[in-house]
Amino acid sequence: MGTGIQERPTSGLPAPAGDPRPLFGAYGIVKRFGDFTANDHVDLEIRAGEIHALLGENGAGKSTLMKILYGLLEPTEGAITHLGQTVRLANPEAARRLGIGMVFQHFSLCENLTVAENIALVMERGLSRAELARRIAALGDTYGLHLEPDRPVWSLSAGERQRIEIVRCLLQDPKLVILDEPTSVLTPGEAELLFTVLERLRDEGRALLYISHRLDEVRRLCARATILRAGKVVGACDPRRESAASLAAMMVGAQVREIAPASAAQSGGERLRLDKLSLPAPGLHATALREIGLTIRGGEILGIAGIAGNGQAELFAALSGEVPAGCAGAVLIDGKPAGHLGVNARRRLGAAFVPEERNGHAAAPAMSLSENVVLSRHATAPLTRFGFLRRGTAQAFASRVIEAFDVRKAGPDPAAGTLSGGNLQKFVVGREILAAPGVLVVDQATWGVDAAAAARIRQALIDLAASGSAVLAISQDLDELFEIADSIAVLHAGQLSPAVPRRQTSREAVGLLMGGGEAAPAATAIALPPETAHAS
Q1: C-alpha distances in angstroms, 301 versus 216, 335, 356, 476?
Q2: d(CA 328, CA 341)
Q3: What's the Cα-to-Cα distance from 103 to each of 77, 80, 283, 444, 494, rounded to whole Å?
Q4: Interatomic CA distance for residues 3 and 186, integer angstroms
Q5: 148 Cβ contact list (under 8 Å, min separation 6)
Q6: Does 285 lie in the same domain as 245?
Q7: Which end of the chain is more exposed for a tag (fewer CB within 10 A), N or C?
Q8: Are 334 and 215 within one domain?
Q9: Are residues 502 and 406 both part of a single domain?
């Protein structure tokens, strides 16, 4: 393919001043996996000194295209160019040599290595540990994303792991930075610091390719956007001239429905209580829980905000039964002591759980969707005389989830690991909600999903609460909590603040508590009366 291909316009928008050639171009990109076409003749140009958004629904082909640009996949057809010259990106090392860095949505980290060791894997050979630690600290100061070089990755929260991905990418001094949902596990303050750095990188003449389902971020940062749907480019625009609603409509091909507040809950009985739940830190770098107390009644959603690493993972483990409490009465599900019970026993009491990490924790990637249903429901679903969930029952339930939550997939019952991150998230959340639990504990419900899917999940949580269930939603997305929660508490350093009705607090007040500040005292676990739950 000749070098003239790079001159084809892909957006119809004026290019930034400077070199008229794109820094990197992708032309006629096709990627097939068997009979499934993930990218269908995609054209994309990325220019120096711009932040370019790549938008699309979950499963639209964005991640596949990014993996091609980073050398993780080779295209079935098409060409990649660098400053007009066709190049072959055989592997990520080849991409990095050309100045391409990537911040992954799904962390590409070695669990048993330290922070510094994970970063060293992509740095030049011969770099001393002291020099590497100095560089990590310097970038941490710049970004506000501080890291402890000697901490093992397995001990870190999702937010802390994301910091590693960002820092190790920027330590390579890239010409092009590909960012796949970089703020999905960052707090608003951390995200603001990141935006400042991205704008500085743009002003220095670097190119940034930005993937995010947070459309307000796209409108703030990006001057150009290319939109994918079903693997094809369906449009382009200047996001600054669009609304979040119009961008979402271009992505999905229709207007995204607004969330409808539920009417009065059917039941107001107490369904979940934590009574002075205290647990020691499970590891050197983990967080101890100190006298956690909360009450959630049927019909309520309690939102728990907090900066990553303040005990969210430990609280989820204590709620799910992965870590038993020292006292049976520290956790009560529908009035029954459950602190000493494991996950299956708590499920039999009517509880359900959606952990933060979908790959490996919420789902087994190598197993099919129906097999993942068996893993989560075998203790509560109808059993055969051999003790296994009927295959037909599991497949039928998986099909219900796929239809209800619009899970995009290839094949009738694919392996969980073949789904895009957002589609796997929709499946995991839907699997638990459609089990109709009396208590649902969900950690980062809409992490990495598009606007339409986020609206669907949030509506499903509201509807579940309206049916009489109690929902505890742990989230770093304050917009999400203020949209769905009846009351909000903050987890900081293993301590839970008193829950306050959403209407009686603000993002600023919650943010102050997230940072360890003081707030006006309130009664612990304020329970809204049923008639006010989800009132508009």
Answers
A1: 25, 18, 18, 15
A2: 8
A3: 25, 20, 27, 19, 29
A4: 40
A5: 115, 285
A6: no
A7: C
A8: no
A9: no
Structure tokens at 528: 């809204």
Euclidean distance between CA atoms 264 and 267, whole angstroms? 9
Beta bridge partners of 441: 353, 472
Task: Provide the token pair at 422.
Answer: 């957002």
Q: Write out the two tokens for 153.
A: 């990755």
450-497 tens-digit pLDDT: 788 888 899 999 999 999 999 999 998 888 899 999 999 999 999 999
The reply to whether 10 falls in a domain is no
215 and 248 Cβ atoms separated by less than 8 Å: yes
Between the two ends of the chain, the Cα-to-Cα distance in Å is: 58
Predicted TM-score (pTM) of the model is 0.70
332-362: b (≥16 Cβ within 10 Å) or e: bbbeeebbebeeeebbebbbbbbbbbbbebb
Same structural domain, 228 and 312: no
Task: Please report the beta strands in 223-269, taking only residues with DSSP state E, as ranges in sequence order.
Answer: 224-229, 232-237
The model's pLDDT over 347-382, given as tens digits with 9 standing for 90+, comes to 999 999 999 988 889 999 999 999 999 888 877 765
